[in-house]
Amino acid sequence: MLVLPLHWIFFSFFLNCLKFCWLCLFFCSICVCRFGRKLCLLLTILINATSGVLMAVAPTYPWVLLFRLVQGLVSKAGWVIGYILMTEFVGLSYRRTVGIAYQVAFTVGLLVLAGAAYVLPHWRWLQFAVTLPNFCFLLYYWCVPESPRWLLSQNRHAEAMQVMRHISRKNGKATPAALQCLRPDEEVGEKLNPSFLDLVRTPQIRKHTLILMYNWFTGSVLYQGLIMHMGLAGSNVYLDFFYSALVEFPAALLIVITIDRIGRRYPWAGSNMVAGAACLASVFIPEDLQWLRVTVACLGRMGITMAYEMVCLVNAELYPTFIRNLGVLVCSSMCDIGGILTPFLVYRLTGIWQELPLVIFAAVGLVAGGLVLLLPETRGQTLPETIEEVENLRRYELTFPHVLLPTGSRPALGQEEGKMREDVDLTPHRESHSHRVRPESTEKEPESKKDIAGEHLLLSQCGGAL
């Protein structure tokens, strides 16, 4: 009879947990893309709150682990669904603001968590305190509509028209005349059903997927690894956690300052490289210069926080509507894998050499910064609606480096560059004052694609945000 060593049994259990997490996230992403953002968001909120309460009253440790696993899976999915829903609601001029505000809310939650843990040292009462408010989010059923972008991708034009009229009314704006082109009786087109193969079928989306997955993994490893490595030498766990969370506010401020002036790509790549360089510099700082070690560690934490927030924003901008939620969930699943591996990296490698984890973090961060430079710039771009638009992003950036293309203006994949001409639009535009590029071809676009391509303009004319 073959008897496996204990560490192989734990390793097999770890791999099975990873497979289970991947299957759950993939199933959730398919449900969100096929059944809508709102329904799945409410279901994740309900499951998250219920499993959190059950965890607080669980009688034994195995039950605690089970409910904690369920809560961890659905809370991550709920966070991503909320971000996607918010991104698809607002117009181009609001996307940066609401994206950063969504991330800053996470930082505020970390600060509140540190205070709540200090006041409520018993873990059961702390679990109740952070779980029970989730039931209030079920009120979203009455105040949050379905994403009009998702409705249009499913050819549910009547419901999309109703949502956009609601947005116009709440923002005090007139219903745009272009809304008349979305006729309820045109819901006869083919519905786009997402598939995992859509993330790797075409070359540009395949490149986006691989780079984004690596950057999600890097963000998780460096973000949590720096906290854990700092905690090894810390004395007060509450203050250390509080101070490390405070560093995230300057990171958000830097993103707000640079994201529209410089773009997404260079600040994102630079923040990864700063985090990696800070980890590498910490290796060579003597232990008697503790103030310098803490300063460099905070600089690294700020850099990886910027990278973490940037990957959330750009990930949603690099996928078309019908696979956007699938793409974000699949790529961000590497964040969970990184979170699982980080404790092993920190606590195992410090047994070999105290600074060895920092060397690993530095290499991972510097590589991530270099890979980001291979992605297209999305500053000033509306959210893509089709795979063809995503495939053309990088090509048009190289051909017209100073031109921002609105989503109705991108020609079909494979159209010759000679048919393009640069047309300077001198009239003020709500979302961009840049040059426009339009195809000279007068070939009529299919109705279903025309409706979807013009939807971003309707959202902007409706006011851009709820």
Automatic annotation (TrEMBL):
Q: Where is the composition biased (Basic and acidic residues)?
A: 416-431, 437-454
Known catalytic reactions: acetylcholine(in) = acetylcholine(out); thiamine(in) = thiamine(out); dopamine(out) = dopamine(in); guanidine(out) = guanidine(in)
Q: Does the keyword Protease apply?
A: no
Task: Offer one example of a GO biological process linked to this entry.
Answer: monoatomic ion transport
Query: Where would you find this protein in the cell?
Result: Basal cell membrane; Basolateral cell membrane
Membrane topology, from the record: Multi-pass membrane protein
Under the heading SUPFAM superfamilies, the entry gives: MFS general substrate transporter
**InterPro entries per the record?**
MFS_dom (IPR020846), MFS_sugar_transport-like (IPR005828), MFS_trans_sf (IPR036259), Sugar_transporter_CS (IPR005829)
Signal keyword on record: no
**Any Pfam family the entry gives:** Sugar_tr
Q: Which family does it belong to?
A: Belongs to the major facilitator (TC 2.A.1) superfamily. Organic cation transporter (TC 2.A.1.19) family.
Protein known as: Solute carrier family 22 member 2
